[in-house]
């Protein structure tokens, strides 16, 4: 389309006055838009020189500036150099997309002498003219066109819709101007895009809209070249011609643009078309609005606080659609700890924009402390297609910890109370722990504590335990502590102790001092009080009496005197005769030996001048390995007389005399001065099994005892350490549940101390056991303990050997055989699934028998045998099963609704929370009178029985659509499943 502009710019030129201008600028638009167009803008100059049209200016026109004025034709004029002269502005009012191609300047002037006048528009030179008037102040000249310029591509620098500046420059002279008319010719922009603006319908975020077509047209008169298309914002060109391409006048092209919002809410952008149009580019303003659903939950996280273990709490988590479009939820699932469950979660709900959906969560803690899980919500939300809502809570309750699980009272005499032992019980839980009772498996053990005992969280209680053995030997038992701990209500404390009884052995049975020189220093002999029993021996009294008691003296004693089992104490008795002759007395020793409360040791002596004395009179080397030398034992030869004692010979003899040897033999004869001793060192090296007896004969010049004997004894054995028991059977355990550790007692049966070595597990299944390591050394007769644990980590029977040695590799190892068995299930059934085939509704199938067998090593109690579907009937109750025992029950199918039926039989053990055995049940129920097992029932279904609401079903006539019939069948199937679910729930409520 073409438009015409007319613009008048008038310059009045008269005289050379420099009087100040009174009207600096006036802008005026004339003419109307037409096709084709010439639009004129008028610009005026003002001055103070006025003459009539055709009249003459005063002769003073050429006088110096400021001396006269001239008004020509009623127009105000301004002369070059005067205050009214200078650049003149006008504002373009052309229509949109205009292109100015030609400029005409029409000038009214008064001519004084002047050279060339050049015209510039916004700095672009338009042309020049010569004034026709002279400075003789001739009549005012009419307007004249002094220049016309054409710019086919548009005037460079033209300010469309803005201010443009006309500038006249004279090379010489003083031209005066009154008015200039500027006529501009042109066309509208040649490249137009339509529509110029477009708003897309609301579009889902992330999806592309239907393309919108935009028309590109060359509305000019010359051919254009389209160089390219560009878009901004969430808008994209989805189809357009390949650029560059030519576009003839009037020709059109189509470009398609899609809207793909990246976010919710309003969006703006543009389509830009670049071309050779001087006013390129052409721009189309684009807008649209993105819509999307947005998901959040509240609260997030949802904290259930502290809940007692075994109890439960429910809470609501709300799913919020914070977007501006429908939120489609495709799945709601739990992830994490099984302590949290969804209560009746909705199936694939749709949440309108700005609305919410509450869901109920149940928290049932199964352990102490913090518990966590997540609700994973799958949806089409723009902000998160898999939204995670956190769940937290804490399980609380009492928790019993028995710090000491084994108590050893050691040795205590039968019928006496051992020193009390204390066992510490701590509450490591969060609420008060109540110890209800403590029971004992052996009456030898007891407690003085009264129950119940309450223990605050983080607190402890010290429970005293007592031991009073009723018989000699090792006494074992356990204490069972019962509490309100919800996870482990009982704890077992292993108790051990040994009943002992003292036995007093006095050696020698008498103290014959022999010949002792009268007047000499007292001669001393010792009597050995040995406790050969198993308990502490108490000596409350030891005294000398008799006719010559004054001649004998007992060394001071701290009475009462206690001698441990296996230990001995020597009492020293001195004899100092005052006259030659025989003296007699008695040493009486009282004790708590139940068989010998009092023992009398006769004391005899004879006043002589010299006497040999042997200490001890016998040496017992105890048990030793064949071929292995014992530790050295010493014997002493004393001269209790008043003269030197000469030892002339030392001879080893007896039945096994060769098994004994002197470590060093003194040079003979050896002289033992009065009241001195000669020490001998002997070893025992047995060559054959059994007891070895010998003697050391000592020949001397003692007139009363020329030959003294020391009896020698030892026992050859094949083993110096023994273990008890020699076999451990851990029975049958469930995989992952370790039975209690069992103890093995190691005893030194030899006559010398033994340094213990390592305890080693051997055998194909050695890795199934663990053993603690012994340490230190054992004196003869002493014991040590190691603990053996069966790990029960695989469903196999495990056999191994425990070997316990010493630091001396020559001592044979003791061996304990180990046995244990672990199973995956304590119960196994002879069937994993039962299929009852087809049964008519209302009828009952023949029962199917099931046998379960115990694999446990201890008795089991079946708590319940139940079906999770009321269409399957179980005939069977709980039972007590011995190890390897079996239980039988029957299952029948009695359908109540037509269709496929499924269920499970679950067998639970006492105190178990999950079934030990699960048997799948299947069957097909036939509608009464139906020959087709697949035919659905035809009953109408009410919407009240369908979860989530819906529509009913009715028999359709010829006009019913197939979709409506199928919908009714699907609805009926849903009803049957829901009713079956409800019955199963009522029959087997959640545990």
CATH topology type of the largest domain: Jelly Rolls
Estimated share of beta-strand residues: over 45%
What overall geometry do the principal axes of the alpha carbons give? elongated
Broad structural category: mainly beta
Count of separate structural domains = 9
- Tally of DSSP helical segments: 1
Contiguous runs where pLDDT drops below 50 for at least 5 residues: 1-35, 46-77, 134-140, 932-991
Q: How many strands in all?
A: 78
What CATH architecture of the largest domain would you give?
Sandwich
What's the rounded overall pLDDT mean? 80
Q: How many whole angstroms does the radius of gyration measure? A: 62 Å
Helix content: under 10%
Query: How widely separated are the two ends?
Result: 86 Å
Biggest pleated sheet: 7 strands, antiparallel
CATH class of the largest domain: Mainly Beta
Domain HYDIN/VesB/CFA65-like Ig-like: 209-286, 298-386, 398-497
Protein name: Choice-of-anchor D domain-containing protein
InterPro entries: ASH (IPR031549), CFAP65 (IPR052614), HYDIN_VesB_CFA65-like_Ig (IPR053879), Ig-like_fold (IPR013783), MYXO-CTERM (IPR024038)
Signal peptide: 1-22
């Amino acid at each position: 389309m073409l438009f015409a502009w007319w613009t008048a710019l008038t310059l009045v030129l008269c005289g050379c006055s420099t009087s100040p201008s009174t009207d600096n600028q006036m802008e005026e638009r004339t003419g109307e838009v037409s096709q084709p167009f010439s639009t004129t803008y008028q610009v005026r100059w003002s001055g103070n020189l006025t003459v009539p049209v055709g009249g003459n200016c005063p002769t003073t026109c050429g006088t110096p500036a400021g001396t006269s004025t001239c008004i020509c034709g009623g127009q105000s004029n301004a002369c070059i150099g005067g205050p009214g002269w200078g650049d003149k502005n006008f504002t373009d009012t052309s229509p949109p997309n205009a292109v100015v191609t030609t400029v005409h300047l029409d000038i009214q002037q008064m001519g004084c002498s002047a050279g060339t006048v050049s015209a510039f528009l916004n700095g672009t030179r338009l042309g020049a003219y010569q004034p026709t008037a002279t400075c003789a102040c001739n009549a005012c000249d009419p307007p004249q066109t002094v220049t016309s310029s054409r710019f086919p591509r548009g005037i460079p620098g033209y300010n469309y819709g803005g201010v443009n500046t006309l500038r006249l420059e004279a090379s010489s002279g003083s031209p005066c101007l009154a008015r200039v008319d500027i006529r501009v010719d042109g066309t509208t922009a040649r490249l137009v895009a339509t529509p110029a603006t477009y708003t897309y319908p609301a579009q889902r975020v992330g999806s592309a809209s239907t393309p919108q077509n935009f028309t590109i047209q060359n509305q000019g008169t010359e051919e254009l070249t389209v160089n390219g298309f560009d878009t901004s914002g969430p808008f994209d060109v989805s189809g357009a011609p390949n650029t560059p391409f030519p576009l003839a006048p009037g020709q059109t092209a189509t470009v398609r643009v899609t809207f793909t919002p990246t976010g919710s809410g309003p969006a703006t952008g543009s389509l830009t078309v670049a071309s050779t149009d001087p006013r390129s580019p052409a721009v189309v303003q684009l807008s649209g609005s993105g819509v999307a659903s947005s998901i959040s939950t509240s609260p997030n996280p949802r904290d259930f606080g502290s809940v007692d273990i075994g109890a439960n709490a429910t809470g609501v988590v709300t799913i919020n659609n914070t977007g501006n479009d429908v939120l489609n939820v495709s799945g709601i699932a739990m992830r994490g700890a099984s302590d949290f469950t969804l209560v009746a979660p909705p199936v694939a709900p749709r949440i309108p924009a700005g609305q919410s959906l509450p869901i109920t969560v149940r928290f049932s803690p199964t352990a102490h402390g913090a518990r966590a899980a997540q609700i994973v919500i799958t949806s089409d939300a723009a902000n998160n297609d898999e939204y995670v809502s956190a769940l937290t809570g804490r399980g609380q309750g009492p928790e019993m910890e028995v710090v000491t699980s084994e108590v050893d009272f050691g040795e205590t005499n039968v019928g006496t109370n051992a020193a009390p032992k204390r066992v510490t019980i701590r509450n490591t839980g969060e609420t008060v722990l109540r110890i209800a009772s403590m029971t004992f498996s052996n009456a030898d053990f007891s407690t003085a504590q009264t129950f119940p005992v309450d223990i605050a969280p983080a607190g402890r209680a010290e429970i005293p335990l007592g031991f009073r053995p009723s018989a000699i030997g090792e006494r074992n038992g356990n204490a069972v502590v019962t509490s309100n701990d919800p996870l482990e209500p009982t704890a077992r404390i292993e108790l051990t102790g040994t009943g002992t009884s003292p036995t007093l052995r006095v050696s020698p049975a008498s103290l014959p001092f022999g010949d002792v020189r009268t007047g000499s220093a007292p001669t001393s002999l010792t009597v050995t009080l040995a406790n050969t029993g198993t308990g502490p021996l108490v000596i409350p009294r030891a005294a000398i009496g008799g006719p010559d008691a004054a001649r004998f003296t007992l060394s001071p004693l701290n009475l009462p005197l206690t001698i441990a089992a296996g230990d001995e104490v020597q009492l020293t008795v001195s004899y100092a005769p005052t006259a030659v002759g025989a003296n007699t007395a008695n040493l009486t020793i009282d004790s708590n030996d139940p068989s010998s409360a009092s023992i009398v040791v006769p004391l005899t002596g004879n006043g002589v001048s010299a006497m040999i004395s042997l200490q001890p009179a016998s040496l017992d080397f105890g048990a030793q390995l064949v071929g292995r030398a014992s530790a050295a034992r010493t014997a002493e030869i004393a001269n209790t007389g008043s003269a030197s004692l000469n030892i002339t010979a030392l001879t080893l003899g007896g039945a096994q005399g060769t098994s004994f040897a002197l470590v060093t033999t003194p040079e003979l004869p050896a002289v033992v001065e009065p009241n001195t001793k000669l020490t001998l060192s002997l070893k025992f090296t047995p060559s054959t099994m059994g007891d070895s007896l010998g003697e050391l004969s000592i020949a001397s010049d003692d007139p009363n005892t020329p030959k003294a004997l020391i009896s020698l004894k030892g026992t050859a054995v094949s083993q110096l350490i023994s273990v008890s028991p020699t076999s451990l059977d851990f029975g049958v355990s469930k995989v992952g549940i370790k039975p209690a550790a069992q103890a093995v007692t190691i005893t030194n049966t030899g006559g010398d101390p033994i340094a213990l070595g390592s305890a080693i597990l051997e055998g194909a299944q050695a890795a199934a056991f663990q053993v603690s390591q012994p340490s230190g050394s054992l004196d003869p007769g002493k014991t040590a303990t190691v603990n053996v644990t069966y790990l029960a980590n695989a469903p196999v029977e495990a056999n191994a050997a425990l070997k316990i040695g010493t630091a001396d590799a020559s001592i044979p190892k003791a061996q304990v055989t180990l046995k244990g068995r672990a199973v995956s299930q304590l119960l196994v059934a002879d069937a994993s699934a039962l299929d009852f085939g087809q049964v008519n509704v209302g009828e009952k199938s023949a029962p199917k028998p099931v046998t379960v067998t115990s694999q446990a090593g201890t008795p089991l109690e079946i708590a319940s045998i139940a079906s999770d579907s009321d269409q399957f009937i179980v005939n069977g109750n709980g039972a007590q099963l011995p190890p390897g025992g079996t239980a039988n029950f029957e299952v029948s199918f009695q359908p109540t609704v037509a269709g496929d039926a499924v269920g499970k039989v679950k067998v639970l053990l006492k105190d178990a929370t999950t079934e030990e055995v699960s048997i799948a049940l299947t069957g097909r129920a036939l509608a009464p009178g139906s020959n087709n097992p697949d035919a659905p029932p035809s009953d109408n279904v009410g919407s009240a029985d369908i979860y989530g609401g819906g529509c009913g079903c009715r028999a359709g006539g010829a006009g019913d659509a197939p979709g409506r019939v199928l919908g009714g069948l699907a609805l009926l199937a849903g009803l049957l499943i829901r009713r079956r679910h409800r019955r199963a729930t009522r029959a087997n409520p959640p545990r």
